[in-house]
Each structure stands twice: as structure tokens, then as C-alpha cells.
Write a structure and sequence with these properties.
Elements lengths: L5 E6 L7 H14 L3 E5 L2 H6 L3 E4 L26 H13 L4 E6 L1 H13 L4 E5 L15 H22 L1 E7 L6 H9 L4 E3 L6 H11 L7 E6 L8 H11 L4 E6 L11 H19 L5 E6 L2 E6 H4 L8 H10 L2
Parallel strand pairs: 1-2, 1-4, 4-5, 5-10, 6-8, 6-9, 7-8
Antiparallel strand pairs: 2-3, 10-11
Length: 326
């Protein structure tokens, strides 16, 4: 087993609160073990174009509380090609990088798996995505911050909903996963939750509006952005207005505010734990795996298993929504 001397570190895909906390943990843990760290700006795209630089303790000072990622992030179509990955590898060798730590989600790990299969370079991944849709960890970096951001926003929306006796359709992120919608719907006392994993959401919503209490002063419906044939929340809002013209129905798209903001304590601690664990795992010979936390213990999951979306939604969550919204 070759000794790791220089770890290349990058973030990729959508940004998530807590990525900077993970960057800080990797850099300081590596330096503690006398391993160099080379930062890679703009993910795989920056790797291809040689946008690499040495990192030290000072370069990660005062970032643990910052949202976003100081290493920047970008999509890379070129890295999806064999030629692009060959160019990225040559750039890494030019900077004497002999291992990689990737912080990101599904697309990031697909790229890491392809790269690891083609080149003899150890790669470990840290789960950085607000969607919480990766196997091999109970929670992903950024998820806790995102759901708290959504909850606080919906609380504010309810204030105006109650003032005007309105029904609000609130769209949250989650094109392929309803995890954000599910938890924030419970936390904000939503009337109904519509998520991609459940095909009866619209039917249940219509039934609730038809047969539910008529004396409610406000109604909140949480919709994951992947729900609905076309138009997402706006299409659902149109259908509700058409079927229930007596409701004063409004649509609110929370959008990218869900990605920003200072990471919560939970996200900072999670990022710090998996960051340190990734460095020490590389030293121990681990490769081509994602580092997560399951039942409060560090876990390792091969990339090909981590990127398989967990589409099983606990029916108890939906039952809770139904019971508590009466």
C-alpha cells in the first residue's frame, strides 16, 4: 500500500451548507498527519483545466460557519468523456496529487467511480447534498440546514396565509427525492405533502380539501419540485383553483434560498466527522467509497451503492401528516 502524500480536494455538483466545514476538516486533518492538500477549484471542470493550488491551515481559517463552498463548484460535460478524464488525470499527476476526496452528491460520485475504475488513484467521497438522497449515510451534509431554512420560510408564509385565509402551495427542492418536503411538511404542520415517491399525493390533497375542516384560517401544502407533470407547484395550484374556486390559492417557490445560509451545528459536526474520517481512511488504504454516518457510527459505502437513490419513504411520515393536519 503506497503512502498518501498529497490529497486533491474538491466540491462538485450543487452547493450545500457545510461543504466549507468539510473542506476545513480535510485540510487540517491531513496537515495533522503531515499530508499535503491540493485544492481544486470548480470541481471536475477545474481539474481538467489545471485550476489547482496548495492549501494550508490559513486557507481554511474562518470558513466553518460559511455557506457555499470556497472551492467553487461547476458542472463538467467534458469530464463525462474518456478524453476529459484522461486530461484531468494528467493535471493531477502534474501537481503530484496521489489521492482524491470529493465532496458532493449523486453526479459527483458517478464521476468519481468512473475515474477510479480507469486510473490507479484512491478516491473517497463525502456526502454533500441538501437532498439527503444517498445510500450509506443517515444524513447528508447540508440537509439539516436546508430543512431548517424551509421550515422558517414556511412559518413566515403561514403568517400571511392566516391573515388572508389563504391556501399556499409551497414548492421546495427535491426533483427526484421528497425528503426535504417530507420533513418540513411535518415540521410546519402542512395540510398535505406531494412528493415524487408517492403517486397519490394530488388525489389525497383533493380529498383533504373536499372533506377536511372548513373553519381553518390557513392551509399549507408542501410540494417537491419533481412532483407534477408540468409546471410543478404552479400546475398544482392551477388544478386546485379550478376544482376549488372558493379557496384563495397562492403559489410560493422557495428556490435557491434553500441552498444558502450558515450551516447548522448538526451539519458542521457531520462534515467535520466525515472529513477527518476520510483522511484517515485514505491512510488505511480505503478507496472508491463514500464516507457517511449510520446510527452515529462512521460507515463506508462503495460509490456504486451510494448513488442508488433510496426511494422507500416511511409510510409513518405520511400517516403523521394525515393525523396531525386534522
Amino acid at each position: 500500500m503506497a503512502q498518501i502524500k498529497n490529497i486533491g480536494l474538491f466540491t462538485s455538483g450543487g452547493d450545500a451548507p457545510g461543504m466549507n466545514s468539510a473542506i476545513r476538516a480535510v485540510v487540517r486533518a491531513a496537515l495533522f498527519h503531515d499530508i499535503k492538500v491540493t485544492g481544486i477549484r470548480r470541481g471536475y471542470e477545474g481539474m481538467i483545466h489545471g485550476d489547482l493550488f496548495p492549501m494550508d491551515r490559513k486557507s481554511v481559517s474562518n470558513i466553518i460557519q460559511r455557506g457555499g463552498t470556497i472551492l467553487k463548484t461547476a458542472r463538467s460535460e467534458q469530464f463525462k468523456t474518456v478524453e476529459g478524464r484522461k486530461l484531468a488525470y494528467s493535471q493531477l499527476k502534474e501537481f503530484n496529487v496521489d489521492a482524491l476526496i470529493a465532496i458532493g452528491g449523486d453526479g459527483t460520485f458517478r464521476g468519481a467511480k468512473a475515474f477510479g475504475d480507469e486510473f490507479d488513484m484512491p478516491i473517497l467521497g463525502l456526502p454533500g447534498t441538501i437532498d439527503n438522497d444517498l445510500m450509506g449515510t443517515d444524513f447528508t451534509i447540508g440537509y439539516d440546514t436546508a430543512i431548517n431554512t424551509v421550515m422558517n420560510a414556511v412559518d413566515k408564509i403561514r403568517d400571511t396565509a392566516e391573515s388572508h385565509d389563504r391556501l399556499f402551495i409551497v414548492e421546495v427542492m427535491g426533483r427526484d427525492s421528497g425528503m426535504i418536503a417530507l420533513r418540513t411538511g411535518i415540521a410546519s404542520g402542512a395540510e398535505a405533502i406531494l412528493i415524487p415517491e408517492s403517486k397519490t399525493g394530488l388525489t389525497n390533497l383533493f380529498d383533504r380539501l373536499e372533506n377536511g375542516r372548513k373553519d381553518k384560517t390557513s392551509r399549507i401544502v408542501i410540494v417537491a419540485e419533481g412532483e407534477g407533470e408540468e409546471g410543478g407547484a404552479f400546475e398544482i395550484g392551477r388544478l386546485v383553483k379550478e376544482k376549488f374556486p372558493n379557496y384563495d390559492t397562492r403559489v410560493s417557490i422557495l428556490g435557491h434560498i434553500q441552498r444558502g445560509g450558515k450551516p447548522t451545528c448538526m451539519d458542521r459536526v457531520l462534515a467535520s466527522r466525515v472529513g477527518v474520517a476520510a483522511v484517515e481512511a485514505l491512510m488505511a488504504g480505503y478507496r472508491n467509497e463514500m464516507v457517511g454516518v449510520i446510527h452515529n457510527e462512521i460507515s463506508f459505502t462503495p460509490f456504486e451503492h451510494a448513488i442508488k437513490h433510496n426511494t422507500d419513504i416511511d409510510p409513518n411520515f405520511l400517516k403523521i401528516v394525515e393525523m396531525l393536519s386534522l
